[in-house]
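Q: Could you predict the 3D structure of Orotate phosphoribosyltransferase?
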Amino acid sequence: MTKIDRSLTDAPQSIATVDLSTLRQQLLDLFCQVAYQEGDFLLTSGQRATYYINGKQITLHPQGGLAVGRLLLPLLPEGTQAVAGLTLGADPIVTAVSVVAAYEGRSLPALIIRKEAKGHGTRAYIEGPGLPEGSAITVLEDVVTTGQSALKAVERLQQAGYQVNGVISLVDRQQGGAELYQKVGLPFQAIFAIAEIQQRSAELREQATAS
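A: Sure. Here are the predicted C-alpha cells for Orotate phosphoribosyltransferase:
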C-alpha cells in the first residue's frame, strides 16, 4: 500500500468532511499512485498510448469512491434529476454521486446504460428507476479519450426520452473528447486533465527518489 493510499485509509472520516480543494488534491495524488501507469497500451478506442489510467482503481477504492462522489456532485448542472453512465466504468461513479447526494438530503437516482440490450426480461438498455419523460440527466465517465463511450450513453438516454444536460469525466485525456461534445452541443467538464496527472506523477517520483 502506498503512502498516499495509507493516508486516505487511516482517516476515512476526513474524506467526508475535508474541504473540496484539499480533497481534489488528495484524489489527484491517489490517481498518480494507483491508477496512472506508463508503458505501451492499447485503448478501448483502438488507439495505442504510452500511458494508461485505470479509473476503477479509484472509483472502487473506498475513500476514492467517496471523494469522487463529493467532487462530482457540485459540478452537476442546476436542475439535474439523475446521473447516468455506460457500464462498466461509470457504474461505481453514478452510484457514489447518488449516495453522496442522499447524505445531503437530495434524491438523485443513478442509471446504468448497458452496451447491449438485456437478453431477457424487459430487454432494456437502461437499468435504474424509471423517470418522467424529459428528465434532465448528466452523463458521468471515468476517463474520456475520443468521447465515443459516453456519447453512446447520451444517445441511449435521448432515445428513451430523457434530456441530457452535459457530460462530466474524472479525467480528460485531451484526445478529441471535448471537441466531440462541443460539436454535438453537450457541455463537458473534467476534474483532471491528463497533463495535470502527468505533472503530479513526475513530482511524486522525484520526491520518492530524493527521500
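Q: Anything worth pointing out?
A: Residues 194-210 form the longest helix (17 residues).
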